[in-house]
Write a structure and sequence with these properties.
DUF7793; alpha/beta; two-stranded parallel ribbon; DUF7793 domain-containing protein; Serine Threonine Protein Phosphatase 5, Tetratricopeptide repeat; Transcription Regulator spoIIAA; TPR-like_helical_dom_sf
Length: 497
């Protein structure tokens, strides 16, 4: 008589749903229950898959030692040897856990095994991509950057049109990271640009924020103080605000922004961001605190505060030692040794000129403190009168919205409606960025009775919801993707039209 598997199926679905919600403790418990049901039914394959899910929950919640122990059992089990894809799954998980424990040679071996099991198998191309990423991560952390780069080229060959954009975006992110680590700065920027084009904020805004922050950090470490780096920072800040990032996320974004100001020569702003950050160090990882202290020390040195700078630099070296980052500690001590008193006040970068860390292309003007963060002049806002005291405002594609654009809109509304309040359909399709000052200014326009924000793309949606995060409490405001829906919504509001 065949056993009823419906309890197992229900338990499995519950476990996978918890994992998707990132409730790893619940996912682990539910997967354990499903594994027990499968074992009672004598179904080894289903039991094995649920134990694998348990191990993945352990990995994702940071219980690396426990994850590694389960991964060893899974890899040695007969089920893992019954099919290449199952063996590869276990080996990939084992590689991740071994890397997390610092056992890098073993992690490289496990990832190599996983890649070999599914190489050339089109049906398992996604597993092959995961295996390559695990191998690249282990090699890169081992300092074997050239070997990691060669594996990146193999990974790129797997990214055909048959691979979905999210997977391709994550893979290009990995390849770009290795390019930066191996001093292939142009390639790093290229692959991170490819990743940005593939990853979608509408699919996972949190991932979008993490990618842009990581890309900005890589670019800053590579001493790139260009517009592409600033775009990464602004996208990360925007996405972090939209998803309501944790305090740690917000602090890490402050560090990234401070690093940008330091790199572009605005030492005062960098110091003003980094100084209060020090009281929050217990929230941050030790190495992150060390990076913040190192930048602060160099910024203080650049402003002539030698004693305070040396104190910060010594502290940074100690923090790097504590974080088991001897190379970064050596970099700090090398900086201290090279900053001789006779040179400190006379180097060009201490006088506000070109930072030795900034990458400036031949023939380009030196980067000045405020230039990268000053928005371009706001292009004209096209406004047309609609029926029933409504105005449609179309913002120019590619525009960086600032207070000037808001003032233009306010003026145009006054020209069209006089002293009467009007509802506004604000189309921001293709707009490149919206700064916080503009968001506050839009919300403060007194002649607007309601806002219907209109856009098309996932980025439009992200910017629209950022704009709606301002002080729109006093009037109705909502985002739409179709103008008819926006007008219908406005028509149903009381005392608006």
């Amino acid at each position: 008589m065949q056993r009823d598997l419906s309890p197992f199926v229900i338990a499995e679905l519950a476990a996978r749903e918890s994992w998707k919600r990132r409730d790893y403790a619940a996912g682990y418990a539910e997967a354990g229950h499903a594994a027990e049901l499968a074992q009672e039914a004598g179904d080894e394959l289903r039991w094995w898959k649920m134990v694998l899910l348990q191990a993945e929950c352990l990995r994702d919640q940071g219980s690396i030692q426990e994850c590694q122990q389960l991964a060893v059992e899974l890899a040695a089990h007969p089920v893992a040897n019954s099919a290449p894809d199952l063996g590869a799954r276990a080996a990939i998980l084992l590689a991740h856990s071994l890397q997390g424990l610092g056992r890098l040679p073993e992690a490289v071996d496990a990832a190599t095994t996983a890649a070999r099991l599914v190489a050339g198998d089109f049906e398992n191309v996604y597993l092959h991509i995961q295996a390559q990423q695990a191998l690249i991560a282990a090699l890169a952390e081992s300092g074997r950057h050239e070997d990691a780069w060669q594996e990146c080229l193999d990974l790129e060959s797997l990214l055909t049109d048959h691979v979905d954009e999210d997977t391709a975006g994550k893979a290009y992110w990995v390849i770009g990271n290795v390019a930066f680590l191996s001093n292939r700065v142009n390639e790093g920027g290229h692959y991170h640009d490819l990743a940005a084009g593939k990853l979608s904020p509408s699919q996972d805004v949190d991932l979008w924020a993490r990618f842009n922050r990581a890309s900005a950090e890589m670019r800053l470490q590579a001493k790139l103080g260009d517009a592409a780096t600033l775009r990464c920072i602004e996208r990360a800040e925007l996405a972090t605000e939209v998803v309501g990032g944790s305090e740690r996320d917000i602090l890490e974004m402050s560090l990234v922004r401070a690093h940008w100001y330091y790199l572009t020569g605005d030492m005062g702003t960098a110091i003003s961001l980094l100084t209060p950050l020090r009281s929050k160090f217990p929230i941050l990882a030790t190495q992150t605190a060390a990076e913040a202290t190192f930048i602060l020390g160099r910024a203080l040195m650049a402003q002539g505060h030698e004693a305070e700078s040396l104190q910060m630099l010594d502290e940074a070296a100690t923090l790097f030692d504590t974080a088991a980052a001897p190379e970064r500690s050596a970099t700090v001590r090398g900086f201290i040794a090279s900053a001789e008193p006779s040179d400190r006040r006379h180097q060009q970068f201490l006088q506000g000129g070109v930072m030795p860390e900034a990458t400036v292309f031949p023939g380009a003007a030196p980067l000045q403190p405020e230039v990268p963060t000053r928005p371009a002049p706001a292009p004209g806002v096209a406004c047309t009168r609609l029926h029933d005291l409504a105005v449609k405002a179309v913002l120019p594609r590619g525009a960086d919205l600032n207070e000037t654009a808001t003032a233009q809109l306010y003026s145009r509304i006054g020209e069209l409606a006089g002293n009467r309040r009007v509802a506004v359909v604000l189309e921001l399709t293709g707009v490149r960025s919206v700064n916080r000052a503009a968001r506050a200014a839009y919300a403060a326009i007194p002649s607007v009775s309601a806002w219907a924000i209109l856009g098309e793309s996932p980025v439009d949606r992200l910017l629209g919801h950022f704009l709606l995060g301002g002080e729109f409490n006093s009037v109705p405001a909502q985002y739409f993707t179709a103008e008819n829906d926006a007008l219908d919504w406005l028509s149903r509001l009381d005392d608006v039209l």
